[in-house]
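Continuing the batch. This is chain 6 of the set; chains 1 through 5 are on the previous pages. Same settings as before, nothing changed between runs. Recording input and output for traceability.
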Amino acid sequence: MKRSETPVDPWHFARPELAAAYLTALDLKLSSARGLFARRRMGKTEFLRRDLTPAARERGYLVAYTNLWDDQDAPDAALIAALNDALAPAGLAGVISKMRKPVSKVKASAKLGGVAEGSVEADLATSTDKALALRETLKILDSQKKTLLLIVDEAQVLARDSHTNFAHALRAALDIRKESIKVIFAGSSEHTLREMFAKSSEPFYNWAPLEPFPLLQQDFVAFTVDKLNSMARYPLTLEAGMHAFDELHRTPEFFKRFIERYMLYQTLGAEAALEHTRASVFSDEHFARQWEAMLPADRAILTLLARGEGDMHSAAGLKRLSEMIGKPATKNTSSQALRRLQASNAVARLSFGEYRIEDEAFAEWIRRKA
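Output for chain 6:
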């Protein structure tokens, strides 16, 4: 199996219609890119890898997929590696493996399908040279007859100040290739993605429309319950499955954990499996460490948001905030706390005065703590 291929998952709920809709929109050539956002654990990455990628290949696209969350310190190397994988998994990708090594010069040649023997020689020790490696790779892609679909998952990593130079180089390279390269930017931080595309100082300002990724609903639950029942001695009802899905805040990853627990301990029943899953996913030690590292005002804001209280600047909101932090709070207190929480991707700004905790598991942990 090629390194870029994804193993078959019998529990995967396929969404071919959604994949076809995204590809058809790109085929119309009215736009060359789009941005998608959804909170973590909501099935976005699984869809991109298991639905959109194979559907694009069936339509004749070359596909390059990368998840920048896996390489937050070097998204440039990760993205160039993905492009080289799309060209020749056993060829130019070998060049990129050396980018992580303390070498100054790298030279590689690779026989590529439909392309004469080419070579890449660049000093890969600096970010400028990563931009050069990107240009050299795209020159080879330019000679391909197929259109490339570039899927950048957790794309908000590119918005960090340390990656600005490469982000500018990437946009410049993509701007002149809108006919031959289509791009899907996806991410879990709605706030950061909105700034990427809406803030005039950002490299990708006004470059792609941003929209919410459609979340999984009852048909996903029904599929999973049917799959479970084909193997279980004690069947699970759809009603019990939907109850668990709702109680786990309609989070597919958590629901699958519930299904796994039920499968292993069927005689204990669905409620026992649900309670065990709740305790498991909403009691992470990571949340405790994250909480302890925060300032009191940040904790207070998160507590209010977790309770559904979104008015942080009114007299009543500031009074509640003052009571929670033990000293008078001003509008500046709440504004600074919200800025810090957005900068750390803990909170997303939905609209003027409306905010949401990004990670629903963290929100539930806060509710339980409160």
